[in-house]
Amino acid sequence: MAQIISLSLKYEDFNTGDLVSKNFDMVVLSIGLDPADSTQALAKSSGIALDDLGNIATSIENPVETSVAGIYVCGVAQGPKDIPDTVAQASAAASKAAALLSPERGTLIKERKFPDEKKLSIEPHIGVFVCHCGINIGSVVNVPNVVEYAKTLPGVAHAQEMLYACSSDSQVTIKDAISKNDLNRVVVASCTPRTHEPLFQNTCREAGLNPYLFELANIREHCSWVHSKEKERATEKAKGMVQMAVAKSALFQPLYKQKVDLINKAVVLGGGVAGMTAALDIANNGYHVTLIEKEKELGGMLREMMELYDGKKPADVLKELIGKVSGNKNIKIINEAKLIKVEGYLGNFKGTILAGGKELPVDFGAAVVATGALNLEPSGLFEYGKDSRVVTQAQLEKMLGKSISAKNVTMIQCVGARSREREYCGRTCCVDAVKNAIRIKKANSSTNVYVLYRDMRTYGVMEKLYETARDLGVVFIKYEPEKLPKVQNESVIVHDAMLNLDIELASDLIVLSTPLVAGENKEINELFKIPLDKNKFFLEAHPKLRPVDFATDGVFLCGSAQAPKLIEEAISQASAAASRACTILSRKFIETEGAISVVNEAKCIGCGTCVTVCPYNAPSLYDVTVKVEEVTYTTKKSKINAASCKGCGSCAAACPAGAITAQHFSSKEIGEAIDAFEKGVKSILIDKGFVEVTV
Fold it and tell me: Which domains does the chain have, with CATH numbers?
């Protein structure tokens, strides 16, 4: 038996100041990221400049552009970052590259030719293909046994095993089997439909079969992987899953996608640095953009800043960006305006802009929300508003544009953040504080600067800012939220968590580092049916996989409208949102889903439940005039927009009248599959042109 070795760690308990020794079975080290040797070699061979740390060098205003024109960077090659920032930056780099290639867009596209669909005979001729997936399935499930069982099921005309059903050779085999055995429905028992269903659907279509006459039984994730130690029972479960797929597929009918024309124009809401960047990227890709800004001037919060952490002047950055936006023929700027009405769907939105007391129509295919955020006013915290010595970092920013006479400056971090009222980290606060502390020390080295912090979060390459501040003599003192600093007449008292002592700091200027808070997002939330999080910021579709998308197709997100961000992060995300918008605008048409929900108008009672539950804003109610004998009246009926519907089935599940059917996942299809697993399939009969499955 292997000997278990205990690991002993010694560490300091900050609460007591004692050195503690404790044993652990496992120790996990959180390590940093160093530039890869391959990055150094690539930079050398391509002439790309590196920063002092060995990362590919960029600038705040151009976070994905390298020193060589036409070469862009994204991810940790540019500096340490988490998945959401990496994914957003990747889309940003794609946006820049696409703009360069835009004159050639579409020149290499060839329309795929498919054979005519074979006429669907009513009687099911089902083909079943069971995959070994190497040893992923085959080492647990007795695949030949499952194939022999499938051959006994009613309606199955052909069954065979495959080593890798997803291989190109297997695709040819499936197509040949469809033709040779006159198959009109196909079941593949293999892995997840999330990645492989489109492949097999396409194979069916190439064989002249409608792609929606296909069903996938996931006997890998749902069977072999979770029952690897119960081979016999796993095999029986796999048989049951195939049986369910056969019963369900017998009821399938052909479904078709629809082509819908789209408007190759965009709207960007918000004229800050994120909004302007998004508009400029879309315009540089060749599409018209309407940029809507509620203030008199473009620029947003960048107008309130005096200096960036790399020493650049925001006014210079703004001047260049506004010049590019104003001079771009594809961008129409409307100041002192807001979007007040939106109708439509992906690729076909119709909106109304209120500007100068007039309502202006605007049609667009995609929208980018870049409405920014607001500085928190910390009223009632640390004597703010009562003591003239107490200011915010935003106010200090303006004061440093001139000069300050204070000899003792104390900065308090996390004011109004990481609390019960606002649980989130302000993200930008630590960087702003360190930047301004450096400016103060460089202006007058004799000024004492103290930063009272809970956790210093100068993340990534900005750790160098923290080191610079320390080298200049800025003093960092850790405090705990249970023992907040206290502002007194001429000083601030703080309990130093490292020394476990109360310290009194002479302070003639006290600076509060406050977070950005969400703006008035409710109106836009209601216009586009896009969600807000609990802090009233806009909520993206997925934080890692879709960081700039909304669940509502055709609407994208960037900048501090989503959460507090540094300028370069907002710019990267703006270019990413533009890139995502261009994936829509670059099309000639929008193709709807085939498996969508449909309404039986005769059963619909017009209650609006479907409108309430749909996450994609697909259903709507409209007036219908009904005449019964001599009585005529108007009632409401539901209609589902095929271009917006994703076939999720929420409306079908919620409809109290049973008037909605989720095609390809109807109650009958799902019911027969469940019954088949429980009771088995006895027969598949044809009755008056309809398929009847008996269990």
Answer: 37-104 (no CATH), 126-249 (3.40.50), 261-374+521-589 (3.50.50.60), 382-514 (3.50.50.60), 596-662 (3.30.70.3270)
